[in-house]
Structures are given as structure tokens and as C-alpha cells.
Specification:
- The complex is a heterodimer.
- Chain A is an alpha/beta fold.
- Chain A has a single domain, classed as 3-Layer(aba) Sandwich (Rossmann fold), CATH 3.40.50.
- A five-stranded parallel β-sheet of chain A has the order 1-11-6-3-2. Chain A has a four-stranded mixed β-sheet with strand order 7-4-5-8, sandwiched between helices.
- The longest helix of chain A has 12 residues.
- Among the domains of chain B are: about 250 residues, NagB/RpiA/CoA transferase-like (Rossmann fold, 3-Layer(aba) Sandwich); about 60 residues, no CATH class.
- In chain B, the strands form two sheets. In chain B, strands 1-10-7-4-2-3 form a six-stranded parallel β-sheet, sandwiched between helices. Chain B has a four-stranded mixed β-sheet with strand order 8-5-6-9.
- In chain B, strand 5 and strand 6 form a beta hairpin.
- Classes of the chains: A alpha/beta, B alpha/beta.
- Strand 8 of chain A pairs antiparallel with strand 9 of chain B, so a sheet runs across the interface.
- Chain A: Pfam families: LUD_dom.
- Chain A: This is Lactate utilization protein B/C.
- Chain A: InterPro entries: FTHF_cligase-like_sf, LUD_dom, NagB/RpiA_transferase-like.
- Chain B: This is 4Fe-4S ferredoxin.
Chain lengths: ~200, ~475
């Protein structure tokens, strides 16, 4: 007998009989709060930087004022072509090792933990938000939702090869519980909250 | 590890407690993490409902494990993921090795996976000439020091920054005496970036595998799992079969609970959902049993398979905090480790269910409501019945039972005990007496309660009669 058949048979013999129904999830996530304010507060608490903007022009201005434009900046957003490269999405992912700033757009953001949902169709490359030194993500204010339950309602049966929630910059506290931003991924995260 | 003689928990804890200042620091550091958990949990009005919901989902998983696993495999295969099954640690290691061999890989980068610790994968691969680098900062530190992780979430929690500085100075050439965590982390970042960029194979653990969609989720704060997986040609994800959950929407429950319970964060920085490999690349999932199906068949202990590895039970445990993760001589330490380990090897791990005060704090913080302290208590019964406890303990218990069951013997024992402690204290206050290890013996009373009662009840009776 193969290991698979053997394991499955053992499990069948061992698993408890009786009914254990799946619980109702609809009763969860009715927390009441101002989603924009909550989103900003939580993001700041975990080391991210919320920036409210009216449109892409304000994003461009912010980036020009706060990042070294002579370094490699990449994006998936044509609106940012003045300051960012757009022609990298089919390159070898290793070639992104010298990227200073990646700017992408999220499907939506979750207020309770400031997580942003991104999938490979809007990432350009899966490694793009990780390999970059700094990360900026744009999300529409109308796409902020309260909790993870609404998040998975919204994801539903969305098709993707890869998707991730990103909440704040990469971090570690593995040395004596001292928080250090920029463990392996981005050292900083700006979230542009767009009207 | 298996060939070494195991130092029992109590002995290892005694050694750990020699450095009082350090033990106090260890204790306080973990309690600080526990407090962060509380603060975070109290901000969620639904917290207790979330725990109950998570528990019910996991109960459903245990009762339907066979079907969910079959679904998961079929759906993962539809997504282009290659699925393997390993009955035990040996087969798991062989499968990983065969994948690496096929791709002619001699160096692999790994993110945190307690399962590979359980299977001793690194040692196995090292013997086959394959170098594995652990990329989680805490695991990287302990790997350089040739130590196992001492905590499932905080692998280097037993070390101070001075220790890390010393280790990095030796292995990475960092400045001697520079203890700054920022500086040390930056040094590791630079070193490991090169590792990520040059490895063709990456291994990760799995936090949740979803039967309905055939995808799996890996949670990290550092981004190391993603750096490895998205740059490699081959991604190997290893999971115990209990990592399954039925549907994608159940992640909403577990991702709300996991990081809050672990470190007090609202969520880990990255919660990555792997569903399909990149074009031309491979994702392998290795589903491991290694004793789990046996545990599933033990009605008293099967609930331990609900564990989502948050570590909350360790952070709150007064014994763990003052004995350190290494004293548990098992990949998973602390209260949950102590109910998982005897299933893996009863005689080797017979000491662990006794490494608890049964205070129940672990059960109270567990996000999936595992009855941890009850299981610790139940394991004790099993271990004694099956003869895995030291005979000195059994004899002592039997003697005590005889004494307590017989009033005459009890009386006599009390009298002689008082006599000995008063007149020849050395007979009791010596190294043979374990009770005396960390305690002074109490002052000897003049009489026993029984004697006192007899006298006083007679006096009060006489008074009433007057």
C-alpha cells in the first residue's frame, strides 16, 4: 500500500465519529468603528505611514519629494510612468534586486489590521513587494472594509495564482524582542489612501 | 538528537535556573509578550466568539479529515501543485531530498517550519551534502549557534543581544561588542539577501491549507518565506495534515486569532496565499503523518491536533517561562509540546506532562480552545499505567496511598516524622529529599492536628457540660 493510501486509511479509522457542524460566520465582524480612522491608526502602530491623497498627481508629488528619483523605481500603474518604470513585469525576478521603490495598487484594505490584499495580476511580479527596499501601495478610500470577514467575503472565489495580505513594513523582533523594521522585505511602507 | 541521551525536563530546568538574573529576564520577556496578547485580544469585542468559532471549525476538520485531505490533494493538483505523502519523518526527509536531487540542488533556503525541526531535516540533508540555511532571523541565529529553536514563534527568545552579537561577530564578522539590534538585523539582512538571490530551491512551512481551493497560506513578519519562494525554481511546502481548514473564508477567523495570540500584532506582516506555481516553476506540498493519525485516534488527546502554533500557551506558562524551551527536548516546547511529544515517543517524553503546575492558563489563552491542562493531567495517568514514569515516583506514591488509607499507619508516620525532623533533621533535610531542593522544611509542630482536635474537642465539650 502506498503511504497515501495507508495514511488516509489510518485517518479514516481514527477520526471521531459524530457530527461537528461548521459554525456560522455571519455573526462575526460586526465591529463598529470609523474605517478610515481605524485604518490609519493601526497602520501607524505597526510602522507604516498613511498618506491621504486626492489623485495620482498628489502621489507623484509625494514620491518626488520623498524618494531618490535617480534610483530604480518600478510600478504597475501607467499613471505613474513619469517617475516609475513599467517594463519589468516579464523580467527575471532576480533582476529586481536593485529596486529602491515599488509602487502598486491594492484591491482593498482591512481597517482592523491595516492589511492590504494584492494578487499576482496586479503585482507585476510576485517578488516585487518583497525584494524592494521601500514599498508604496495605493488603495481607494472606498475600498476600506472593517474586518477580515468582509475581506474574505470580498475575495469570494476570486481566481489567483498568488495573493497576499501586506500589513506594514517587513519587521522582526527576534533579537531580545526589540522591534526592527526591514527584516528581509521592505524597510518602509507608505499607503496612499485615495479619494 | 535522537542518539543523544535526553536530559529530563526537571534536570534541564535546574540548570537553566542557576543564573537567576537571566531566568528572571526570560520570565519577564515572555510575560511581556503574553501581556501584548491580552491587550490585543481585549480590543476585539468578538474575541471569545472567535475562539469558539475557531474551535468548532477545527472540530469539524478532525471529524472530516479524510475527506478534506482528499479534497485538498485533488484541488491542489488541479492548480498545478505536486502533492506528496509521508508516513513518517524518514519518508518526509527522503521526499524532500529526492526533489532536490531531481533539480540538482545542493543549497536550499528555508523559512520557519517546525515540522522540519520535528523531522530533523537539516541534519538529514547535511549528511547528503546539501546545505540548508534558515532564513527567519531567530532561526538563523540559533542555526549559527548549532542550537535548536527554543520557541516556535520566537526561536531565539532564550538569547540576549550580547549573545547574538558574539555569534554574528564570529560568523558574519560584525563589530565586536556592537549589540545594537538594528545593526545586527541589518547585517543578517545583507548576508541572507545574497542567499535568497542564489538559491534554486526554497522550503517553507504551511500555516493553513484550504481543502476547498487547494491553496495554502504562509504567515511571516520578515517576508523571508516569500523572498525564498518567489525567487526559487522549486518551492517545497511541508505540512502536518492537521493544518487543513475547510474553506477559504475560514481564514478570516484564523488570521484574526493567530498573530494576536502569538505576539499581540493585529496580523502578521505577510499572509501569503500560494495557489499555483509561477510559469515553468514548481510547487511541491509534502503532507506528513508522523504519528498524527495515532493521536487522532486517541479520544483524550486528539484535540491537540487543533493547534495553530501561535505559542500563546508557552508565553503564559509559569513553568516554560522559568525553564526555557530547550528543557523540553522536543521541537515544540511548552504545554502544547508536552501533549504532542508523548504521542511521538512515550518513553523519551514521559517527563514532559509533569512539567506543569496544571494551573490552566494555557487552556485559557488557547485560540482554538484546546483543553491543554486537562490533557497534561490525562497523559500522566497514561504514562504511569504504561510504566513510563520513574519507579521511585511510583513507589513513593504507593507508599503514600498505604499511609493515607490507614489511620493507624498515618498516625504512626506523623509521630515518627515529627520526631525525626525535630531530633535528627539531617535525615530529612538532605540531598536525597527532592522536596528539600528549593525549600526549607517547615518548623515541626508540637502535636498533630488530630491530637490537638482530640484535646480541644474534649475541653470544649467539658466547657459545655459545665
Amino acid at each position: 500500500m502506498s503511504s497515501k493510501a495507508e495514511i488516509l486509511q489510518k485517518i479514516k479509522n481514527s477520526q471521531p465519529n459524530g457530527i461537528a457542524d461548521l459554525p456560522n460566520l455571519n455573526v462575526l465582524g460586526s465591529d463598529q468603528f470609523d474605517v478610515l480612522e481605524m485604518y490609519k491608526t493601526v497602520l501607524k502602530n505597526i510602522g507604516g505611514n498613511p498618506v491621504e491623497v486626492a489623485d495620482y498627481n498628489e502621489v507623484l508629488t509625494y514620491i518626488r519629494n520623498n524618494y531618490p528619483l535617480e534610483k530604480r523605481i518600478i510600478s504597475t500603474l501607467p499613471e505613474l510612468s513619469e517617475i516609475a518604470l513599467l517594463d519589468w513585469t516579464n523580467d527575471d525576478p532576480h533582476s529586481l534586486k536593485d529596486v529602491e521603490l515599488t509602487i502598486i495598487k491594492a484591491h482593498f484594505g482591512v481597517a482592523e489590521n491595516s492589511a492590504l490584499w494584492v494578487t499576482d495580476d496586479i503585482l507585476g511580479q510576485r517578488v516585487a513587494p518583497f525584494i524592494t527596499q521601500y514599498l508604496a501601495i495605493i488603495v481607494n478610500k472606498k475600498d476600506l472594509i472593517p474586518t477580515m470577514h468582509q475581506a474574505y467575503d470580498r475575495i469570494g472565489d476570486q481566481e489567483y495564482g498568488f495573493g497576499t495580505f501586506i500589513a506594514g513594513p517587513s519587521k522582526t523582533a527576534d533579537i531580545e524582542q526589540s522591534l526592527v523594521l526591514g527584516a528581509h522585505g521592505a524597510r518602509g511602507l507608505v499607503v496612499f489612501l485615495m479619494d | 538528537m535522537s542518539s543523544e541521551k535526553i536530559v529530563e525536563h526537571s534536570e534541564a530546568a535546574t540548570r537553566f535556573n542557576k543564573d537567576v538574573e537571566r531566568v528572571n529576564w526570560h520570565d519577564e520577556t515572555l510575560w511581556f509578550v503574553r501581556e501584548k496578547r491580552d491587550k490585543s485580544a481585549h480590543q476585539i469585542p468578538d474575541w471569545e466568539l472567535l475562539r469558539e468559532t475557531a474551535s468548532q471549525i477545527k472540530n469539524n476538520v478532525l471529524a472530516n479529515m479524510h475527506d478534506y485531505l482528499s479534497d485538498f490533494e485533488a484541488n491542489a493538483q488541479k492548480n498545478g501543485i505536486i502533492v506528496h505523502w509521508a508516513a513518517d519523518a524518514k519518508e518526509h526527509n527522503e521526499i524532500v531530498h529526492s526533489i532536490l536531487q531531481k533539480h540538482e540542488v545542493k543549497q536550499m533556503v528555508k523559512s520557519k517550519s517546525m515540522l522540519t525541526e520535528e523531522c530533523h531535516l537539516n541534519d538529514y540533508l547535511a549528511d547528503k551534502g546539501i546545505e540548508v540555511i534558515d532564513s527567519d532571523l531567530g532561526e538563523y541565529i540559533v542555526q549559527l549557534r548549532k542550537e535548536p529553536p527554543s520557541h516556535i514563534v520566537l526561536p531565539a527568545i532564550h538569547l540576549k543581544k550580547e549573545d547574538v552579537s558574539e555569534t554574528f561577530h564570529e560568523h558574519l564578522g560584525t563589530e565586536k561588542g556592537n549589540f545594537d539590534p538594528q545593526y545586527l538585523t541589518e547585517s543578517a539582512r545583507r548576508e541572507l539577501r545574497d542567499t535568497f538571490l542564489t538559491r534554486k530551491a526554497a522550503l517553507t512551512g504551511v500555516n493553513f491549507a484550504i481543502a476547498e481551493t487547494g491553496e495554502f497560506v504562509v504567515c511571516t513578519n520578515e517576508g523571508n518565506a516569500d523572498m525564498g519562494a518567489h525567487l526559487a525554481d522549486v518551492h517545497i511546502a511541508c505540512m502536518g495534515f492537521e493544518k487543513l481548514i475547510p474553506q477559504r473564508k475560514h481564514l478570516g477567523v484564523f488570521l484574526r486569532l493567530l498573530a494576536r495570540s502569538a505576539t499581540g500584532q493585529p496580523i502578521t506582516t505577510f499572509s501569503s496565499h500560494f495557489k499555483k506555481p509561477r510559469n515553468g516553476k514548481e510547487i511541491h506540498v509534502v503532507i506528513v503523518d508522523n504519528g498524527r493519525s495515532t493521536q487522532l485516534g486517541r479520544p483524550d488527546f486528539r484535540n491537540s491536533l487543533k493547534c495553530i502554533r501561535c505559542g500563546a500557551c508557552m508565553n503564559t506558562c509559569p513553568v516554560y517561562r522559568r525553564s526555557g524551551g530547550h528543557s523540553y527536548h522536543n521541537a515544540v516546547a511548552g504545554p502544547i509540546g508536552s501533549i504532542l511529544a508523548p504521542n511521538l515517543d512515550m518513553s523519551k517524553n514521559a517527563d514532559l506532562p509533569f512539567a506543569s503546575t496544571l494551573c490552566g492558563s494555557c487552556t485559557n489563552v488557547c485560540p482554538v480552545k484546546i483543553d491543554i491542562h486537562d490533557q497534561l493531567y490525562k497523559w500522566r495517568q497514561v504514562l504511569v499505567k504504561e510504566g513510563h514514569t520513574p519507579s521511585s515516583k511510583t513507589i513513593a506514591m504507593k507508599t503514600m496511598a498505604t499511609v493515607l488509607a490507614n489511620p493507624t499507619v498515618f498516625n504512626l508516620a506523623g509521630k515518627s516524622g515529627r520526631f525525626v525532623m525535630k531530633n535528627i533533621p539531617g535525615l530529612v533535610n538532605n540531598k536525597m529529599n527532592k522536596w528539600y531542593d528549593q525549600r526549607e522544611m517547615p518548623e515541626v509542630p508540637e502535636e498533630s492536628f488530630r491530637e490537638w482536635y482530640k484535646k480541644n474537642s474534649r475541653e470544649s465539650k467539658a466547657k459545655k457540660d459545665e
